[in-house]
Amino acid sequence: xxxxxxxxxxxxxxxxxxxLSGQVGFYIPKPKKGKDEESAPRKFFSKxxxxxxxxxxxxxxxxxxxxxxxxxxxxxxxxxxMFCMEETYCLVLDRHAFMEIIGTEERDCITKEVAFL
Length: 117
Fold this sequence. Notes:
CATH class: Mainly Beta
CATH superfamily: Jelly Rolls
Oligomer: single chain
Strand order of the largest sheet: 4-1-6
Shape: globular
Helix content: 25-40%
């Protein structure tokens, strides 16, 4: 069964993840349902299933892709939640190692690109 990573919506992560194998889903909250729309009652679901039921899959990340950089570069919470979609192995860098590798020059370059978008 997929497991929750520690990168959750609005939570600051102290790590950068590079996927070595497997698949990780990037989820954002689903829009709230209107008063007219009723969802069927759901019982006997785990906390993780209830949380995932309220989220929308935006993108599935695969081998060679990475995530967690926005928390490290901009010191802010995650834009979404990350969940393993299958057995997944990641290379994990802490903040210090990430900043040592990426350096301030690369950080400035990424900041300019994001500002342009």
